Predict the 3D structure of the following.
Amino acid sequence: MKKKLALLLMLTALSAFLAGCSEFRDPIYANSEGFWNHYVVWPLVSLINTFKDLLGSYGFAIIAVTIIIRLVLLPLMIKQTQSSKRMQEVQPELNALKTKYKSKDAVTQQKYREEMQKIMSEKKINPAAGCLPVIIQMPILFGFYHAISRMNVTYDIGKFLWFELALPSITLAVIAGLIQFTVLRTGPAMDNPQMKVMMYIMPFMIMIFGSFLPAALALYWVVGNIISFIQNVFIYKPFKKKVVEPVKVGGKRK
């Protein structure tokens, strides 16, 4: 849990750093120099412009590009979600191990780690798998931020519904945060006390960042989180009543 919070804080600091880069105010063109511009920002701008020509507005274009990105990442997201689900399923066993090996001496703790690793291996759980999608999505999120901000200098990206895409929208930011809360509430956090803090921190952060970043980025969050919610419904089945089975440790039921 501490590692996840540390990662979250690190990514937040990185996002704040990138948000402060002076380059995000510069126009973006096909011949803009630099690895970031050539391989991340401009491809996103080109893709958004292509769908804008097809669909008639930048709002629909951003929605289409978001769906495409999420479909590309879907196998990785499903793998992460399944790993989180397995982690959730073995949580009672892990808690029982903590009780069994509650002594803090080195020998007991070594035995605890060995048995915990055995459970993780048998269930094919990789604790690091949960961080990988976040790490992959962050450059895309930063790329979207730069693309939208710099497109607004180069093009008129206009409105989607009543939202000015180039300007912050508190309303859209709140919607994005609420949908993020719903996603976390229907995912592994709903039955894991250690993850419940994330259920409140993440939506709050999205509301704060969305309140001063372009509404186009909040739209990206809204669409992406709707897809995540649908994914949770099929994988976690959050609205189905669960029956908790007793956990066996050392031949005894806990």
The first helix runs from residue 2 to 19. The beta strands are 159-160, 163-164, 248-249, 252-253.
